[in-house]
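# step 3/5: fold
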Amino acid sequence: MMDALVKATPDKGLKLMQVEKPKCGPNDVLIKINKTAICGTDLHIYNWDVWSQKHIKPPLVIGHEYVGRIAQVGENANGFKVGDKVSGEGHIVCGHCRNCRAGNGQWCHATEGVGVQRSGAFAEYLVIPASNCIPISEELPDDIVSFFDAFGNATHTALMFDVVGEDVLITGAGPIGIMAAAICNKNGARNVIITDLNDYRLELAKKLGATATVNVTRDSLEKVMKEHCMVEGFDVGLEMSGAASALNQMIGNMRNGGAIALLGLFGDKQPTLDMDEIILKGLTVKGIYGRRMYETWYKMGAMVEAGLDLSPLITHRFHYTEFQKAFDIMNTGNSGKIILDWSK
């Protein structure tokens, strides 16, 4: 048996429970979890919102951002040994469809998500296929690696288009949007301007490299653009908020020939787009899902090793037994990444 955070019933909250320790199959690895990070998806599940009600089937161990060490290796699982420091790609794919065979597993039509469709990482142990296990350098800090899954979303989005010397607009200063700002800054963007409603998170974005921040409830994006010598509009847009108004503002402030990467999900509040503006501006609009399997993971490690400092994004740390405090803080919106320690 082991401790785990479980979505036990179809209502708000989680329970710390004793559950069966997962068994390592012949093609699997068993990971002893060291640190985990709370994702926005975990908060949706905790709050039991409309998305969760459609996609989650309690009881379920949740969580998909983690770092740990190999505790057992299946007999057919090559390339790993007990004690290796690892994380894991959270999308378990079929391996047989057209996209999987073409090296585009992030688009697999049969994806199962760790902590969503199958047992997750908010537990003392996790089993995943060895093919999903990611070796991690001992030089990389555990706290940072614990949210590499989310960092991967930011990396995939921020590197979709060339940002060297470009003016970048990011809508949505959640942790992924903030990390995207840090990535664009690290990779040579001229200006990185980020918008949101939350001053706490906008301040975090400044610490991680945003050139300027815009609280859309009171600040003028157009004024900030002029202050930073932008004449024709943004070259690259990264939509992270899932807010229709943010996407429409982005489209309105892109230069002709600009490119937009869409990561935020809009749910039941779908935007009404001016398609003529998109067409007449010649905009490129690209949907982003997850991480490139597995190229994004190499990019993440390389950027951190090269000096990308994400540590200011970590605002709180708790032992896993204090999970309630962590989720209460997450629900205020006044946090960055929150780390849970799974040591006894």
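# step 4/5: annotate
The mean pLDDT is 97.
# step 5/5: archive (pending)
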